[in-house]
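Let us practice reading a record.
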Amino acid sequence: MPSEKFSWLRIGPKSPEFDALHPDHVYDLIQRHNCDRAQRQYDVKGYERRAESPATWNLLKGLIGICFAVQGNEGGWKTAIESYREVRGITTGDCKYQAGYDLLKQVGSFLLEHPDGKVEFGEAPTGPGSAACPYRVTDLYFPIGNVDEAAPGDIVEVHGTWPSEVHHVFLDGKKQEVSPLSEGDEDKACCHKGLTLFEVPQNLQPGTEVKKITLAGDGFELTAPHGFTVKAP
């Protein structure tokens, strides 16, 4: 009997749980081997809403099948093969879709070629560059009406993807504390499509150019794509 061993789904990192029916969050559940909950979220989504993005949800159906198969439900392999047939060749999607597609393609291709084959899995890849979604700062949002300008006391939003919670923001090397999020934003803090806030220091003079914004957490630093100019209050 031919056999093949694959690495498990790459770590996301996790998506905010404020929208539990979002496909990125369902990916996270599968990645953590939480098959039952992932299946519930798939079912609750409903056929009509899944039909709005069929490739994404067909892919997740296949990954859920693999998740169950690994835990001993052999019927999951059939689900994986059927889903692979439905999405084969549809490679365009977000970072978690692409990571999931890579795994489903490996498993589906192998089982189609070897119907009696045995599939095994090792641990998910770890180390630099192994996450499904790249770590980076994607956007800076300044007060309404301003483009790359902020006054002392203004709150600047930083959006992006990071491996764990952001603890500090450095403005040209000077450490700032991260501003607390509002209650409605707390679930968006970490980590894929995450959000963090900082307050422009009161001691920065108008006309000052902050050239480098760096986010720091446990074991990581990320630099924003651009800085900003301090304006008068």
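A brief commentary: The radius of gyration is 21 Å.
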